[in-house]
Amino acid sequence: MGVLNDPIYRPLSITFIEYREGDKLGFILAWFSMLPFIYIVSLCTLIIFRRDVQTIMYFGGFCVSEVCNYALKRFFKQARPERTRDRMGLYEVHGMPSDHAQTFFYFMTYLAIFVILKSQMPGSPHIRSIRNRVLVFTQLIVAVIVAYSRVYLHYHTVAQVVVGAFFGTALGCGWYYFVNYHFMQYASLITDHPLGKYFLIRDYSLIPRLIHFQYENEYAEAKRWRERRANYAKDQNIMLSGRGAVSNSNDNNTNSNQRRQWSEGIMSTDKSIRLYRDDDRQLIQNLVNEYLLAGSNNVLELIRRCPTECFEENLLFDYR
């Protein structure tokens, strides 16, 4: 096959960023130019783990921004700077408005409004006010650097990044207003829908001090499981000792006191063990009585008779 017959390969222009060799500032700005994509990946990760309506709609605004940018570039049809224009096979033809500037200004505007109006970080009102101002100022500086990187690297003109920043800011304000003052009123329709429940979609918008709420509940749950694990071996030894008390007796007519002790060895040998629900308490008690009357001392066989879900859902014993 000759060279002329080889297929033509093109880079994915949206992530194809070049800088002049030896230009340290250009190298740094090239990484700043990648921030929108890093931010998008981080946002997708956050959606996967949080699955809350607010974050999903935040990402939805980015999708709207991309559609608008595509339409605006076809409307203005303004070429890119001359250096990039000479390598048009590597980049999209149109440059007005800058997609990077529009996307990142949308993200930063929406986030800045959210921080100002709904931030619930710990600290006094004065400390929160200072923290919010620092966060908003930092977001603004980063957005400006991202926009400047597109001009410095000759991917866009100043006018193209300014127009992109304007549309991104306008979309951030408008989308925040739409989501928080209109759409979130119907968030319960999503969370209560069978599909919403299947995908574990949540709405955190009405929970005050969300960070504290999540921390306190997750800390308490983790502590409870640590205590369960610590008591597990002790509780098993108590149950087996109850079985041993019966196995040492060869008399099928064991007195009621011994039977009661063995029953208690399974049902409530320690105050740290309690049955979770009344119906399961009755179920296990009936099984214990059945085995006592039969003179059986096989605790493992008794446990196998219990429903599997009693163990899988912690319905047999709750270690506190």
UniProtKB/TrEMBL annotation:
Residues 54-176 form the Phosphatidic acid phosphatase type 2/haloperoxidase domain. Keywords: Endoplasmic reticulum, Hydrolase, Membrane, Transmembrane, Transmembrane helix. It is found in: Endoplasmic reticulum membrane; Membrane. The keyword Endoplasmic reticulum applies. Pfam families: PAP2 (PF01569). It comes from the Eukaryota. Its EC number is 3.6.1.43. One of its GO terms (cellular component) is endoplasmic reticulum membrane. Belongs to the dolichyldiphosphatase family. This is Dolichyldiphosphatase. It comes from Rotaria magnacalcarata.
